[in-house]
Amino acid sequence: MRIAIGSDQAGYNLKSEIARWLAERGYAVRDLGTDDADTRVDYPDFARAVAQAVTGGECDLGIAVCGTGLGVSITANKVPGVRAALCTNTYTARMSRLHNDANVLCLGERVVGIGLALDIVAAWLQASFEGGRHARRLAKIRNTKGTKVGRYQVTGH
Length: 157
Ligand code: RB5
Known about the structure:
binds D-ribose
């Protein structure tokens, strides 16, 4: 499995640990930067690179890291076709795959320690989309852009 990974300087150390952990387990890691923890960069550049590596088909999944995970998740979710999940525990990581088919995992280096982060990555990679009723909901997510408030019909609940 090919995994794109990227971070800003605030996520660099965690990104490096995750990249090493993935490579040791046989994943093909595409590290899109940044390349050190000291040079200030802008997290949207790296979140977008990870997101586009996934939607462009170069990689199967992506992992984006910043200080909180918030900036990279907000950015990645603006790329059409991306379902980015900001996770701080293994339960949401697993559920983001099972129910939401998340294709980008977002993490905050200042929020989770390395041990928990690696458990989150493992839980995320081990789970896979359940489909069924959840596929209908993903179609609704895809169709949400441009929906006019007040004109939406609730169906299938
Ligand atoms: C960088 O200081 C920080 O703002 C960034 O890593 C991230 O937490 C933004 O959401």
